[in-house]
Fold:
Amino acid sequence: MLAAKPDLIIMYSLAGLPDSKANYAALSKIVPTPAFDFDATDAGWRPALKKLGRVFGRTQTAERSIQTFDRRVTELRGKLAPVLARPNTALLVMFEPTSVMALGEKFSFSGTLRQLGLKLSVPAGMDANTVFKVVIPEALLTLKADRVVLLRAKTGGQLVPRNMTDTLLAQAKLPVNTYPLDPQEASTGPLTDLKRLEALAKILR
Structure:
């Protein structure tokens, strides 16, 4: 990377990674290195977008992008008023038929639910402030939620096939809203978040 002689390095600095601070210290001695942790605060990607707007002399463009995003979120919330009257939502992810994970507040997709005004529900015994937890399917019967958003991985054009998780969610009589998840999509960002918000607005019930 340094062989390219960059004038600027933009770094994703995830809190808790052992090499993050050391890498930042080394790189910032060479060239300016703004570093961002989108999960550090509820503000998410906004501080990064504002700072990069200043760095590249595009402050007004960055501000307009945030304002446009916020207006669209307000519009979507208005359309989802009946759903928001029952806001408790469990967020699950399925990458394969044999396992399912419950997602907590620290997972990036959970922020998308918060932006819409939904409240996260987790299985009994799970700390809501964690990132994720692999759960046995029977734990899904402990969910106290108005609905489930199921992030179902899509590979080769095919969703993970139906399995025991689907059977148990049906037994729990929870409405399931399936979001086809591309495992390669970005964790968060203005374009990613807007894509998710638009998709959720179409499927939530």
Remarks:
- The CA atoms of residues 38 and 44 lie 4 Å apart.
